[in-house]
Design goal:
about 110 residues, alpha+beta, six-stranded antiparallel β-sheet, 1 helix
């Protein structure tokens, strides 16, 4: 994955669904480290673009990470529900992995 952490910077992530290779790209639209990252989000085969916003708010003993992925109305109607479901599941896995990583780092002191 590549991320240029500045307004107008590019995001690029190659990934595989186990069968095919894919590429997701985006452009950073807003950034306020370490609290906010907003960008466009588009898989190479899509003819539409979505928007992703990640916010991090410190809380006692940790942080709350919020992720919003919007803009699905640009997707073809017949593909919209499966795309939303697939991305919801993917983001859930990624956030759980991030939480586990953070907890393991805390456990090490």
């Amino acid at each position: 994955m590549k991320l240029e952490p500045r307004i107008g910077g590019h995001f690029f992530e190659p990934w595989s669904d186990g069968v095919l290779e894919h590429r997701t790209t985006g452009t950073i639209t807003e950034i306020d480290p370490p609290h906010l990252l907003a960008m466009t989000w588009k898989d190479e085969e899509w003819e539409f673009e979505t928007a992703l916003t990640v916010t991090i708010v410190g809380q006692s003993g940790g942080a709350l990470i919020s992720l919003q992925h919007r803009g699905w109305e640009g997707a073809p109607v017949e593909e919209r529900a499966p795309l939303i479901s697939d991305h919801r599941g993917g983001w859930s896995r990624h956030l759980k992995n991030l939480a586990a990583c953070a907890e393991s780092m805390t456990d090490r002191g």
